[in-house]
Amino acid sequence: MPIGIDDFQKIITQDFYYIDKTGMIRDLLNNWGEVNLFTRPRRFGKSLNMSMLRYFFEIGTDKSLFDGLAISRETKLCEQYLGQFPVISISLKTAHGESLDVARKELATVIGMEAMRFQFLLDSEALSAEEKRLYSQLIAAGSTGNETFDMSRTVISSSLKILSMLLYKHYGRKVIILIDEYDVPLAKAKERGYYREMTDMIRALMDSALKSNDYLFFAVLTGCLRVAKESIFTGLNNLKMYTLLDERCDEYFGFTDEEVRGILDTCGLSEYYEVTKEWYEG
Questions:
Q1: Global pTM value
Q2: Residue 22: HSE in the Cβ half-sphere, 13 Å Cα cutoff
């Protein structure tokens, strides 16, 4: 049983028990939304689903990871989308410092570490010297010794759009952006007294990446809280929200009744169904 493991590849290759949620890929593509926001409580499988999306779409992926899963039966979709896109995937769960300055540095680290995955851009013949300089700003090490990456607030705000543009020019394919736990920096900022400033910074990042990004194919965001649209998604009219109360895609987060019965049956614990249901408050 994969307790606390949220890396899709690790679960599949190391033969952990996996409840097949790959139908989510089909539904996202067939029920198109350029920006999709899923809000669910903790431990509902949000990060694992984001990992699954990355491994499905990303150029260079191991396509055999999806053998025998529900999405593999969608042959046309797999031919068109499996391993066909550059993917930017970040989690904001660590960007929550005690102060705005610390949180900014943590956010720069999250973005910088993801940008480091694409160092081949420095040698790309599709990029100009100026475009390579833009990329270098995203991976530049801090000079003070107190921060991993040396990014100004302005660079942070435009970072995902810049990276999208560079990947698009290199591959000739629009980019998929995955942002996990988008609401953590805002929730922590509210607790620690710099909510307005953090809202301004996250709004600028989201606007640049999701609202006016010609290089975006589509995006998926997850979080626990539904932050008011007016706070960080101002003017984002291409946003689809899927809350806990929506039936759309509800089977892809958490476990259905049938899936819980299947787990217990596999483990030889079917007689504990009612007890398990009581433990988890129904």
A1: 0.92
A2: 23
